[in-house]
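Hi Y.,

Following your request, here is the sequence exactly as I used it, all 123 residues.
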Amino acid sequence: MNSKLRIPLCWKVYPAVEEAGGSDVEDLVKEAKVEHNSVKELISKIEKLDPDDELFDATYKVIAEQVEHHADEEEQEMFPKVEKLGIDLLALGDEIKERKRELEAEQDTLMGKAKSAVRDMMR
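Below is the corresponding structure, written out as C-alpha cells. Let me know if you'd prefer a different format.
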C-alpha cells in the first residue's frame, strides 16, 4: 500500500478550517488530527504483520472501528460547522481528487521506470 495515495481530508480541509478561524471546530480539528495519526500508526503496524499473526484481525478491526467513528464524527459534527464558515467542501474534494490523480500518475511513471531498469538488468 503506497502511503502517498492515502489522501486524507486533513491535507486540505483542516488547514482551511484553521485559516477560517472556526473556534467552534478548533477542538474537533485537533481531535481529528490525533485520530488520523492513530490510524496511520495502526496501518503501519498491520502492514508489517503477517495475515496469520494472532493480532492481525484485532488490529484490522480496531482500524475499521476508528475510521468509522472518525468519518461519522466529521460528517455529523465537523462538516455542518465547516459549511457555516463558508468553506466549499466540494471544491476542496475536487482538489483532493486532482492531487490523488497526480500522485497515481507519478507512481505509474516510477513503476514504469523501475520495470524498465529491471528488464535492462536482466539482459
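Residues 89-122 form the longest helix (34 residues).

Thanks again,
Q.
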